[in-house]
Amino acid sequence: MKYYNNVVELIGNTPLVKLNKVTEGIACTVLAKVEYFNPGGSIKDRIAEKLIDAAEASGHLKPGGTIVEPTSGNTGIGLALVAQQRGYKCIFVLPDKVAVDKINTLKAYGAEVVVCPSAVAHEDPRSYYSVSDRIARETPGAFKPDQYSNLNGPASHYATTGPEIWKDTEGKVTHVVIGVGTGGTVSGVGKYLKEVSKGAVQIIGCDPAGSVYSNGTGRPYLVEGVGRGDDFLPGAYDNSVVDQFVPVPDLESFMMTRKLGKEEGLLVGPSCGMATVAALKVAKSLPADAVVVVILPDGGRGYLAKVFNDTWMRTYGFMPRLGDAVEDLVAGTQVNPQVVSVKATDTIKDALDKNSEFVVVFNNQPPVRFGEILGVLRLDHIKAGLASGAFKETDLVEAHMESKPVPLGYTDTVATAKEVLADVDCALVLREGEVIGLLTGDTFH
Questions:
Q1: Same structural domain, 245 and 354
Q2: Global pTM value
Q3: Which residues are catalytic?
């Protein structure tokens, strides 16, 4: 009989699949390393076993212990799979931009999930990094693998992913394209392939446009699990192995993700679409004998409610218009006059002095990214609070702000806008995740 003792034994040895339709006009061979064939559905399964093995060997993780980790989902799933087999509990801390499908998947594997705001700084006590630190301190027998600094992550890719690519291409690989998040994959794979090829293999990193890896400002983006939104570069990241970085806008990443499903039969996540866009940009100038490998880190079933959902895509401003559209209502306007903002640490008097019906709470400079908005203040709410004594003019805005306005895509129909504004006071109009206007119910009166 041929069988495996448990699902952990299925990790690794994922296949290379040739891309055929999205590579039209490209002379060289482009191969996708499809990591959703791992039992947990992503490349993060590879590091999970190594992280836990090392923690057990060092005595940091003892029988009956609890694994606490900040994650965008996939690392948590890998850790949960291994933890199940060894009798550990898991608590995972996620940013709120993670798809609900991923959260439910983690719960299905028996993990406890804590969700934190993503529009806060790394060192903020509410960030998912800080919250995971606090939970680890307060939980008896807790161990935090910390994939961001744990060098066993890159080591797992040096030992498995890199050698698999070299073996399966018979040493003919010339370029490898990898999305960079924690930095573990690109560092481990890059180090191995640089050594075995004597520096011949080119390692290309890619990240969402705006991420700091490719010298972006760190402003929010919507592709999950890759890039960095602050100047904190993980200890697991070795920039010496990366020859080039390719930044990819969210729109291109999302469109390619959908295209890979429709044209290549590869239902993958948005970071895979991002990496494929970067790979094709690199491949278009290469000769026919070049071999480009692009790592596709996860599957698409965790994103069915987002990138594969037309309504979500349209709401965040990523779909073409169908007819009359919301953008016509804000055409010719600028964000600054339309969207009045204050910082969370400004006072109620500062907000009142804006003399605007709605003031959004936003801690940066325009352009306004939806992911950066913390909440909203209504002028009538401020006045009522001051009149009743519930507010003081010296109170900070963050103490009294309401939840942020709902998003409305710039190509949503006017009829959709009317329906939305029948139930809420205001909506922010988005184009590719960026705020281009604010609409209220008065728009239609």
A1: no
A2: 0.90
A3: 44
284 plus 373 within the same structural domain: no
Q: How far is it, in rounded angstroms, from Cα 380 to Cα 109?
A: 46
Low-confidence residues of the chain, pLDDT below 50? Answer: 334-337
Measured CA distances, 59 to 65, 67, 88, 92, 238 (Å) = 11, 13, 14, 21, 27
Which residue among 274, 303, 332 closes a domain? 303
What would the two tokens of residue 420 be?
Answer: 């939305």
Residue 6, Cβ density class (10 Å: 0-12 exposed, 13-18 middle, ≥19 buried): exposed
Identify the CATH number of the domain in which residue 437 sits: 3.10.580.10
CB of 41 closer than 8 Å to CB of 298: yes
d(CA 297, CA 272) in angstroms, rounded, equals 6
Q: Residues 433, 349: contact at Cβ < 8 Å?
A: no
Q: Which amino acid is at 282?
A: V
Buried/exposed code over 46-78 (b: 16+ C-beta within 10 A; e: otherwise)? bbbbbbbebbbeeeebeeebbbbbbbbbbbbbb
Q: How far is it, in rounded angstroms, from Cα 16 to Cα 441?
A: 53
Identify residue 404 by its one-letter amino acid code: K
* pLDDT number for residue 336: 39
Nearest one of 314, 432, 431, 422 to 443, comparing CA atoms: 422
Q: How many domains does the chain have?
A: 3
Structure-block tokens of residue 123: 């060192």
| Three-state SS at 219 | coil
Domain with 242 in it: 12-42+153-303
pLDDT attached to residue 40: 94
Rounded CA-CA distance 219/29 in Å is: 34
Co-location of 388 and 254 in the same domain:
no
Please state, in angstroms and as integers, the Cα–Cα distance from residue 175 to each residue in 166, 266, 280, following that order. 11, 21, 11
Any bridge partners for residue 114, and if so which? Answer: 93
Instruction: Give pLDDT, residue 217.
Output: 75
The answer on 235 and 121 residing in a single domain is no
Give the single-character DSSP code of 161: I
CA distances from 180 to 104, 188, 213, 274 (A): 25, 12, 8, 11
Residue 288 within a domain: yes
Among 143, 175, 197, the domain-final residue is 143
Q: Phi/psi at 26 (nearest 5 deg)?
A: -100, 130
